[in-house]
């Protein structure tokens, strides 16, 4: 199952704290034209897997769930923009 780093949890939490965002909103991950698409949605689509990690809701489309099994979602803030990326738990640590 996909897990989230503390940075990814914080980034998603910041996104869903907007007062105009619905209470049960979350980050949805689904296949897109150029890889995986991450979008903020009000609720999961039928069939989506729900990952509740650190109080952060992530909805994963079934096809994407297969690709993301045993992966870790991380985030980095660059120039005011959040960039999400995947890392495998068995990937070598970077110095």
Describe, in plain words, how this protein is organized in 3D.
With 95 residues, the chain is an alpha/beta fold. The protein has one domain (3-87): Hypothetical Protein Aq_1857, Chain: A, CATH 2.60.300.12. It has helices at residues 6-16, 62-68; strands at residues 3-4, 26-32, 35-41, 49-53, 56-60, 72-78, 81-87. The strands form two sheets. The chain has a four-stranded mixed beta sheet. A hairpin with a 2-residue loop joins strand 2 (26-32) and strand 3 (35-41). The model has no long low-confidence stretch (mean pLDDT 88).
Key attributes of the depicted protein:
3-stranded mixed β-sheet, 19% helix, Hypothetical Protein Aq_1857, Chain: A, 95 residues, alpha/beta
Which structural class fits the helix and strand makeup? alpha/beta
- Spatial sequence of strands, sheet with the most strands: 3-2-5-4
Helix content: 10-25%
Shape: globular
Overall mean pLDDT = 88
Report the radius of gyration as a whole number of Å: 13 Å
Report the uncertain regions: none
Please provide the ordered H/E string of secondary-structure elements.
Answer: EHEEEEHEE
Task: Report the count of strand segments.
Answer: 7
The name of the CATH superfamily reads: HesB-like domain
> Can you count the helices?
2
What's the CATH class, please? Mainly Beta
- Level-2 CATH architecture: Sandwich
Cα separation of the termini: 26 Å
What can be said about this structure in brief?
With 95 residues, this protein is of the alpha/beta class. Helix content is 19%, strand content 42%.
């Amino acid at each position: 199952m996909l897990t989230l780093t503390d940075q990814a949890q914080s980034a998603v939490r910041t996104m869903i704290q907007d007062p105009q965002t619905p209470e049960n909103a979350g980050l949805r991950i689904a296949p897109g034209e150029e890889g995986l698409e991450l979008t903020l949605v009000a609720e999961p689509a039928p069939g989506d897997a729900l990952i509740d990690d650190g109080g952060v809701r992530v909805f994963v489309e079934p096809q994407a769930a297969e690709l993301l099994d045993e992966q870790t979602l991380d985030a980095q803030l660059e120039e005011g923009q959040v960039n999400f990326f995947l890392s495998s738990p068995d990937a070598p640590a970077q110095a």
